[in-house]
Amino acid sequence: MGLFGLAACAAVKDINEEKTFITEEINNIQINLNTETLRILRTEESNEAKLHLYGKATKEIKLASELNDKTMTVSLKQAKGGLNVFLDVYIPKNYDENISAKLSSGAIKVHSVDLAKFAVNTSSGKTEVENLNAGKININTFTGEVIIKKVSAREVEIKGKSSAIYFEECVVNNAKAHNSSGKITLTNNSGNFDLKGKSGKVMASYNDFENQNLNVQTDTGGIIMELPGTAEFFISAKTNTGKIKSDFSINPGGYMDKKMIEGQIGDENNKVSLKSWSGSIKIIKK
To answer: What is the pLDDT of residue 248?
Structure first.
């Protein structure tokens, strides 16, 4: 190995640091990172929150934390030298307040925590949330992929530009996902969803369709909705230059053609509104 190679290897540092803090006097945890991977996890072992920073870097990286007016702010010092750096945040069971995270291109993973509010702001990093119980969830991203799985929440709001957004097996009161060119996918969720996009495709698939409303609006993106054959709902679907295809027949008194459908299917009060300027709309029986 040459001198330059030896120098490069010698410059790489192993990072391994831990900190703990008591959460009894804290109602908000703010985490600020750059390109690092953040994981927020439940711990059953302690009443304290624990921070674990680890990985490899070309510069010294240290945890920095500050408590001010019941808000704990967590960040890193000399973070630009990171090669492959991770921060695990372990949240005790008795903490059910607020957590917010701000990242540039770093990924964030959240698993099995209960919170009043969870918020994420990221540029291109991937956001994965699973088994989260929360009053409110806010996610803002530019190009980062967003995966929401097995989440229970009163309110969810996701805003993206060219992101891919996925909801799977979630139970929500009200959820909004607004995107530009990225696709939005719903799979076996329950609750009221409001989805808006421009050129991205929107696909919603349900095994059961009861006690929920779905509103989808796109400009050029197509809309595909898959429902069980027993689904009952009121539908309003319209496209200007695209086409509509439906496997369901509406009750007498409704209206259906290749550009517009409006009427009742069955008897239930579920409401479906699908609108696209130039995209096609398909309503499919599973």
So the answer is: 96
